[in-house]
Amino acid sequence: MTESIRRPAGELEAAVLSALWAAERPLTPAEVQQVLPGVLARTTVATILARLHDKGTVSRTRAGRAYAYSPVVEDHAALAAHRMHTELDKERDRPGVLARFVSRLTSDDEELLRDLLAQPVVPEEPR
Amino acid sequence: MIWAVWAPLLAPLAAVPVARRLAGLLPPRAAALLLAGCAAALAAFSGVSLVLLTVAGLLKLPFVAELGHVRTALLPHDPAFGMPLGAAAAALALAGTAAALRTLLGHGRQVLRARAEVARVAGAGDLTVLPDPGADAYALPGRPGRVVVTAGMLRSLDAEERAALLAHERAHLAGRHHLLLLAADLAGCVHPVLRALREPLAYQLERWADEAAVSAVGDRQVVARAVGRAALAASAAPAGRRPAPALSAVAGPVPRRVSALLGASGGPQGGVWARHAVALSLGVCVLLSGAAVVDATGDLHASVETAQGAP
């Protein structure tokens, strides 16, 4: 309960939501707590999940004695995502303002990248 | 006036390669600030030069001369005080301004559209997740800025890597990196040679955010893995339509970032002396360019005063 507690509430909410999206199945507060890096109290996770539920960002179902949470996918959200991509595609070949996490890879890049990722001592976990 | 008005227009030819070289020798944050600063300064000096040439040319026009109470006969016989040159400078200045306005509007429109779409999707904290199976992530500037990530991207990373991704995008927002990119884009509108600074600037901004992510998650390997796996996921399952990648023999920015994170190569290289020598020559270029602008402005002012029949 050291470093995570000092992080702003927004960052904790973001971490919890990204964990739910990555899971592809409903997660209980205990499961979310296990997944999140850094030590975070179960009650903190439960509070964040309840807050996200109040906002309508996540939905919940009973799972035994706890609730299991999953992200809400609104119809118009999928539409918005689609429209955004068509928008971004138009801009993609021009330099844009949106700093993307990763740029396009050439096939040589891909090979080089696989080599680089194979090198580190930390093994890639199966997925 | 003869050399001084040309120097700022020619300076980028020498300064741009030197700045690119120096950026490779510096840590990412310093390199990015250097590239953006250089682009802005050299563009500003070039812009002033074009304005000076325009004014000097305009003064040869009888009605402008009359308006300024200038006797054209008293103007120096300098090729810089010529109508053809003045007209060319005016055309370049106008074209540059138009291109800069277009760039500014384009950037603004792109951000506004993206924000309008993101506003329709529920988020948490500073994160918006797009329900898209493709892999993509970016920082959306604004007040407050937002991190936009697709569901597909989150699913292709583990928890630590997701933390690294979020930290990386937050570093872009906190450092207002889009403003530095915008500065470089506008500089390229003023002087085409300055466009060569954009690509290294974009790379250094990514490296800067990567290093910020390293500070946040405390593990270089995690960040390297996050960048690498995100890139592989994005090329395996592109978000939306993505044109086929062009073939190239040169390593793109992503492998360079990953090797810099892993300490393999790509990090700042070269000794202190090399860095100092390159920094010195760049400083000389930019300072000369600035001094030339001041000199040329003074010269033009003096010539006009003489031609106005001042005692």
From TrEMBL, chain A:
UniProt lists the family membership as follows: Belongs to the BlaI transcriptional regulatory family.
To which species is this protein native?
Streptomyces orinoci
Q: Which Pfam families match?
A: Penicillinase_R
Q: In the UniProt record, does the keyword Endoplasmic reticulum occur?
A: no
Q: SUPFAM superfamilies annotated for this entry?
A: Winged helix' DNA-binding domain
Which Gene3D superfamilies does the record match to this protein?
A: Winged helix-like DNA-binding domain superfamily/Winged helix DNA-binding domain
Highest rank taxon of the organism: Bacteria
Question: Keywords in UniProt for this one?
Answer: DNA-binding, Transcription, Transcription regulation
Q: What is this protein called?
A: BlaI/MecI/CopY family transcriptional regulator
From TrEMBL, chain B:
Transmembrane segments annotated in the record for this chain: 31-59, 80-101
- RNA-binding recorded as keyword: no
Q: Which cofactor does it need?
A: Zn(2+)
Listed InterPro entries: Beta-lactam_resp_regulator, Peptidase_M48
Q: Which Pfam families match?
A: Peptidase_M48
Q: Does the keyword Disulfide bond apply?
A: no
Give the cofactor binding note. Binds 1 zinc ion per subunit.
Keywords, A to Z, come to:
Hydrolase, Membrane, Metal-binding, Metalloprotease, Protease, Transmembrane, Transmembrane helix, Zinc
Ranges where the Peptidase M48 domain occurs: 126-184
Describe the family membership recorded for this protein in Swiss-Prot or TrEMBL.
Belongs to the peptidase M48 family.
Protein name from the UniProt record: M56 family metallopeptidase
Organism in which the protein naturally occurs: Streptomyces orinoci
Mind giving the lineage of the organism this protein is from?
Answer: Bacteria, Bacillati, Actinomycetota, Actinomycetes, Kitasatosporales
